[in-house]
Amino acid sequence: MPLSPAQGKLPVRTKLAYGLGTLAFGIKDQGFSTFLMLYYNQIVGLPAAWVGAAILVAMIVDAVADPLIGHFSDHCRSRWGRRHPFMYASAIPLAAGYFLLWVPPHGSHELQFIYLLVTSIVVRVAISFYEIPSSALIAEFTSDYDERTSISTYRALFYAVGNVGMAVLALKVFMRATPDQPLGQLNAAGYTGYAAASAVLMFLCVLISARATHSRIPTLHLNHEVERPGLMELLRGLRVILFDRTCISVLLCILFFGIAGGFATTLGVYVSTYFWHLNSADLSVISGAMAFGVILALVVVQLSKKLGKKQTALGLYWIALLAATIPLVLGLMQEMPAGHGALLTVLALREVLMIMCVLAAIILATSMVADVADYFLLKTGKQMEGLMFSGLIMISKMVSGMGVFLSGLVLSSINFPDKAVANAVTPGVVHQLVWVYVLIMGGLCALAILSLSFYPITRASHQRILWELQAR
Q1: Which of 80, 127, 142, 376 is deepest in the core (most CB within 10 A)?
Q2: What is the DSSP string of 176-228?
Q3: H helix runs in 34-189, sequence order
Q4: Is 265 a member of any domain?
Q5: 5 is a domain residue
Q6: Angle, in degrees to the nearest 10, between helices 145-169 and 190-212
């Protein structure tokens, strides 16, 4: 029986280096969630349903690839440990794939669909090669209940920096308004520079993080199991995870909230452009306000030390539900502030609350999954951190994937026009868009809250798990 990880705290420099790599995931999620549908639908001219279908197929590939990556990461034996070979291997394909994603060829819709599909798969699989092994390290660095939340905080902080920072950089630097195109987010020329800057940052962050945590390899677990990492072993592991209440409750919660977040981000840029009539400068102000949400998230997550991870997360989901829906309902009822400045302020405050809830929920969910890894080690005697975190990463990527897919379905079902001029879309179509947004967001957040209510691990029960592991 392998020993559980050490109880000690990690140096701040190690947490910073470890978290830095997640900046790449933040950049990728920001691009997929915010700009991908808008770019391919409104600039390239690919029908929204086609964009959604490409992302759906890429997600199906993910559903196969991610558990395989996690499983082989759990069983890898090398002089670089179990996790780092995968992390190093991800850097070049990730950067190259992300750049190519934003420079599609001219040609038929069929050609552009295939191009989007292939480049999306490359990016999603490449980010999995980094994120799944990297996330699994949380369970190996320490078994301390609160220290895991601290480590998750660093990861989430850099995720937010990549997500929010690249949104601001894109809108302020690359996607500028021009006389021909007053809405910068619809300026095709800006996307090439955005793609190049993003690719370089992703490459550097992944390599720096992997290299900076390389010295920790001797302190991490080796897998002493004799079984080969075959298909049957993988299927047995998946069965254990998917049919266990403890694990499935938190994974379903992350699934529903992740889809809600992706849907809100992808369709949110349509709502901002065609319902609120915001330009790229307005969107950059709102994106900049997200920084306050990041700060609040780092404060709010500390409540888990008193309330526990589950209760803190449930409170955050309720706040997210209200913040996501109430302003839009008020806007439909024409009860929002009439002045542009006042409206922008309200929308910025809404975004602050949303990013606070999403980021803090990511921190707590990652920490909870690490606690479940100890539970499974006690229950089965097997180390399945990589396989478990493959589920978390796959679900996290649904923030963008399912968001794009659902948005494509919604846009097609209401006959939202391709390459639409901002003020030319009929109010009836725009109002349909907003009502569907509100109903889907409300339903998904409610399902996330219901799922998490079944999660049983508390601080006390986790400590009992560690005592029993030490006694073996």
Answers
A1: 127
A2: ---SS-SSGGG-TTHHHHHHHHHHHHHHHHHHHHHHHTGGGGGGSPP----S-
A3: 36-38, 48-75, 84-101, 109-141, 145-169
A4: yes
A5: no
A6: 160
Q: How far is CA 423 from CA 58, 115, 155, 412, in A?
A: 33, 31, 40, 19
Q: Which two tokens stand for residue 374?
A: 């100890």
What's CA 300's distance to the chain center, in Å? Answer: 19
Nearest to residue 52, comparing CAs of 405, 467, 422, 365?
Answer: 405
11 found inside a domain: no
**Which tokens in the block code for residue 443?**
């339903």
Q: How many residues does the chain have?
A: 472
End-to-end CA distance of the chain, in Å? 7
- How far apart CA 285 and CA 137 sit, in angstroms, is 36
Q: Give the pair of three-digit tokens for residue 42.
A: 């409104």
The domain that holds 180 is classified in CATH as 1.20.1250.20
Burial of residue 87 (CB within 10 Å: 0-12, 13-18, 19+) is buried
Cα-to-chain-centroid distance, residue 188: 25
Sequence-ordered list of residues with C-beta below 8 angstroms from that of 334, at least 6 positions apart, any chain: none
Domain count, the chain: 1
Provide the residue range defining the domain that includes 288: 17-218+232-471
Q: What is the pLDDT of residues 158-186, one digit of tens each?
A: 988 898 888 888 888 888 877 777 777 78
For residue range 360-417, what is the model confidence (pLDDT) as tens digits? Answer: 887 888 788 878 888 888 887 777 777 777 766 666 666 556 766 788 888 888 888 8
| Residue entry with tokens 């480590």 | 151
Distance CA 59, CA 53 (A): 10
**Banded model confidence at residue 1, pLDDT cuts 50, 70, 90:** very low
Could you give the angle at the alpha carbon of 21 between the alpha carbons of 98 and 403, nearest 5°? 50
- Copy the structure tokens of residue 168: 């601001």
Residue with token string 């399912």: 402
Nearest Cα to Cα of residue 279 among 187, 397, 169, 395: 187
Cα(239)–Cα(251) distance, rounded to whole angstroms? 14
- Give which of 26, 36, 24 is closest to 402, Cα–Cα: 36
| 314-325 residue pLDDT tens | 999 899 889 989
Rounded CA-CA distance 106/112 in Å is: 8
168 CB neighbour count, 10 Å cutoff: 18
Q: Is 277 left (phi over 0), alpha (psi -120 to 50) or beta?
A: left
Any domain includes 248: yes
Token output for 288:
């900049």
Tokens linked to 447:
């399902």
